[in-house]
Amino acid sequence: MKKVVVIGAGLGGLSASAYLAAAGYDVTVYEASSTYGGKAGNIASEGFRFDTGPSLLTMPFVLEHLFAAAGRNISDYIKIKPLDVLCKYFYPDGTEVTAYNDLPRFIDEISEKTGEPRRNFEKYFAYSKKIYDLTHELFLFKSFREAGTFFNAKSLKTLLNIFRIDPFRTMHKANAAFFGNKKVVQMFDRYATYNGSDPYKAPATLNIIQHVEYALGGYTADGGIRGIAEGLYKLCRELGVKFEFGKRTEKILLESRQVKGIIADGKPVKSDIVVTNADVFSSYNKLLDGVHTRGRKRYSQLEPSSSALVFYWGVKGNNEKLEGHNILFTKDYSAEFNSLFEKREIYADPTVYIYISSKFNKSDAPEGHENWFVMINAPHTGGRTSVPDLCRIRENIIGKIEETTGIKIGENILTEHVLTPSDIENKTGSTFGSLYGISSNDRYAAFLRQDNKCREIEGLYFCGGSAHPGGGIPLVILSGKIASELIKKYEAA
Ligand SMILES: Cc1cc2nc3c(=O)[nH]c(=O)nc-3n(C[C@H](O)[C@H](O)[C@H](O)COP(=O)(O)OP(=O)(O)OC[C@H]3O[C@@H](n4cnc5c(N)ncnc54)[C@H](O)[C@@H]3O)c2cc1C
To answer: How far is ligand 1, taken at its centre, from the CA of residue 244, in Å?
Structure first.
């Protein structure tokens, strides 16, 4: 039986481990921290529970496939629940729009609140669906570097329809061409942040995300997003995956460019195959230090995705005005993105995201209380270790919440934890604290992302948000699936 070492127990690492163990490989995960899940972590404090990172699940069928591949029924491990409301949007002029998890109802709502004709939304969602139909198999479900990915009828159709997947204009340009109302454009531009990018630079192909969220739906799970990590971990354990927590991998061992194992916690560990769920940049620069690779050179030239600053507040009271997911928009979105990606500073009037999982998981907060996850976009650290003016930013956010929603939150915060971009880097190994690996601000980014098989070192594979097909829960689960398929093809168990 071939021995596989997986470096990192993020969602991508758990996915690869489960797929491989189900296929008969002997899998051991070496995780630097004391628990599994990586960015999908958990804080439990004074009766409040918080998801630390991801807060919204899309494409749950990707998870269902993983459990089915292991001969299990997902509902025995993770109780996935559709949301009633995807998000409530608050604009600086007082407009409030509820994005129902029911497309016709959402279109009624937004068209009534903004005056934008219904038919424009119908055309827009048909366009977004077209991008999904043409691209998802080619861009999300397979390795780019395998000849079979391109030489088949479906891929050929995508390539022949290249203009219909809209790669030559930006997301913002495309959105502004569909809608006259600036609030609608701002709402749909926001989806660039789902992979840490700038809608004024990222290709309009990313407008695929709106189909994924509005037509395929948004979900949560019992126990919040952490419940997904727990279900995956339980599955891995049942499949015989071994976990070594608190063991940081320091080096990937090679002999004539063939993987021989790793050094973890100062000790050598032999293996036939290594799957790294650590950030691609740090895999090349730290774990393969001294090994010349083209991948390392290429990755050092790519722009990391944006990061985030998150406050986790245990809050007194129930706020009926808010839903589980809420966005309080900035007055000037282009200035916010310019600040994030050009000046690399947190913007003075940032868009604020508030996620309150206790709205649907009552046990996440004591009776009469709520658990607020308050996040703003932040630039990647670029090597900085602290956020300048953190207290001022916090006060600014509190002021914005009060001004936009009328909720006086400052006096009701009972407990507080903070996650800065450098905390994200230190806790999960993401280069510069990026949330989603590399940004998609370049139209070729999808092609530049690390393939799941290293073509320069035998036996080395990649999964996770900085590898193909990208960041976000469903994509990192797919990265583990694609890596496992390549391993089955090239390294029979
Ligand atoms: C604040 C925030 C909000 C987000 N919101 C969303 C959202 O709403 N929806 C969504 O889909 N996605 C969201 N994301 C992104 C999503 O969390 C990530 O894309 C995904 O969880 C990353 O998974 P991963 O497999 O890349 O592993 P990671 O979570 O990055 O974990 C990597 C693991 O590898 C370990 N590791 C690294 N180096 C080593 C080493 N040398 N030795 C041993 N172990 C090592 C780390 O300790 C870590 O446990 C968010 C992320 C953050 C931080």
So the answer is: 18
Q: Which pLDDT value is given to residue 143?
A: 79
Atom of ligand 1 nearest to the CA of 30: 43
pTM over 0.90: yes
Burial state string for 257-284 with b = 16 or more CB within 10 A and e = fewer than 16: eebbbbbbeeeebebbbbbbbbbbbbbb
Tally of helices (H runs) and strands (E runs) in the chain:
17, 19
pLDDT in tens, 439-457: 889 888 877 889 999 999 9
Question: Cα of 393 to ligand 1 centre, how many Å?
Answer: 25
Mutate to test the pocket of ligand 1, among 289, 306, 428, 434 (most ligand atoms within 8 A of CB): 428
Amino acid at 33: S
Domains of the chain: 3-40+50-76+223-303+439-490 (3.50.50.60)
Using CA of residue 143, residue 148, residue 150, residue 153, what is the dihedral sign?
Answer: negative
Parts of the chain with a pLDDT under 70: 147-160
Among 39, 50, 419, 463, name the best residue to mutate to test ligand 1's pocket (greatest count of ligand atoms within 8 A of Cβ): 39
**Are 461 and 487 contacting, i.e. CB atoms less than 8 angstroms apart?**
yes
Q: What is the pLDDT of residue 153?
A: 62
Q: Which residues line ligand 1 (CB under 6 A)?
A: 7-13, 30-33, 38-40, 53-56, 248-249, 277-278, 308, 310, 375, 424, 428-430, 435-436, 464-465, 471-473, 476
Collapsing DSSP states into helix, strand and coil, what is residue 375?
A: strand
Best residue among 277, 325, 422 to mutate for probing ligand 1's pocket (most ligand atoms within 8 Å of CB) is 277
pLDDT on residue 467: 95
Residue of 435, 436, 480 lying closest to 461 (CA atoms):
480
